[in-house]
Amino acid sequence: MVCALEFAFVRIGINHSFYYVFASHFTRTCVEQCEKTGCVGGKCSQHCKFSSDGKPEGGPWYLQEPLYLQWKQWDCRSDCRYHCMLAREEEREKLGGKPVKYHGKWLFHRAYGFQEPVSVALSALNLAFQFHGWVSFFILIYYKLPLTPSKKTYYEYTGLWNIYGILSMNSWFWSAVFHSRDVELTEKLHCSSAVALLGFSLILAIQRAFSVRNEASRVMVSTPVIAFVTTHILYLNCYNLDYGLNIKVCVAMGVAQLLIWAVWAGITHHPSWSKLWVAVVGGGLVMLLEIYDFPPYHGFVDSHALWHATTIPLTYLWWSFAKDDAEFRTSSFLKKAK
Ligand SMILES: [Zn+2]
Questions:
Q1: pLDDT of 5 higher than 60
Q2: In angstroms, what is the span from residue 116 Cα to ligand 1's centroid?
Q3: Which of 16-20, 86-90, 267-271, 279-283 has the lowest mean pLDDT?
């Protein structure tokens, strides 16, 4: 009951208190009704089947779903909330109203059990591009470029790029999971993996831009960042999943690394400085999509989904820069050795 009430609070601004009360009442009544009948306006939930004595049929909801889908926690109540929100949004649209956010999130149309199908598909595509980029980097560095007599790469940042690749793929994997179904666990995993990736790319930016090569300086540079990121992740997971604070932390780390790369590319005249600049400017521009935040078009494509689309070419460009850098460093090292 408390949940239904809580859920029904629609974020449409403080001044619309009358509408606020009306909307919460509408949704609450709708959810209560749906939990009794299992249907909203002709659409019925497969999770709300009742026998004649009013008890759910086939045991509790978690016994009705195959085991591998249970983490999604689709039950009668969450289905009812979804159908009631859809019904309300349709009603609003007919009256010429604009979409509103529920619990700070836009309402999406589900497809095949996926909550935000477009973002899931694009996250998977990002994952594929990260994998492709990382594999092609790996092949270049270990099979195409010359190795030292002890079978190590001449390029000093190989390990950093490898970890970056793994963290990126991990982050896109959890992004796809989170967009398939947004529950507390998937949200924490998505959030934590994204923060870990951002923190590590900051370390990569600092070490590459300042040419930090010996072990002691590397440890000295990375430790504060790792300590900060770990504390932040623990805070989010164990204490308070504070969105506002998390956005500030992510933007600060993101802007810091974009600035480092941009300034470094300008100063050093790296042979692939143009790729770096396009990636940096592109990265900055696509951040605007996250800030602009428009509602999902036809219930499917919102600004966040578009943001996931734009990161695909940037990923390709970024790995292309990593490969250029590896070739550049290896050849200049070999020239010096001659
Ligand atoms: Zn996302």
A1: no
A2: 9
A3: 16-20
- Strand stretches in the chain, DSSP E: 10-11, 39-40, 43-44, 101-102
pLDDT at 7: 27
Q: Enumerate the H helices of 140-272 as residue ranges.
A: 158-180, 184-209, 215-234, 243-268
Neighbours of ion ligand 1 (CB under 5 A): 175
Quick one: CATH architecture of 117-337?
A: Up-down Bundle (1.20)
| Distance (Å, whole) CA 203 – CA 199 | 7
Domain ranges of the chain: 2-102, 117-337
Q: Which pLDDT belongs to residue 36?
A: 73
User: Ligand 1: distance of its center to the CA of 308 in Å?
Assistant: 7
Q: How far is the CA of 119 from the centre of ligand 1 (A)?
A: 6
Q: How far is the CA of 255 from the centre of ligand 1 (A)?
A: 19
Distance (Å, rounded) from C-alpha 232 to C-alpha 296?
Answer: 30
Predicted confidence (pLDDT) per residue in 306-335, tens digit: 889 999 999 999 999 999 999 999 998 888
245 CA to middle of ligand 1, Å? 18
Could you tell me the distance, in angstroms and rounded to a whole number, from the CA of residue 168 to the centre of ligand 1? Answer: 13
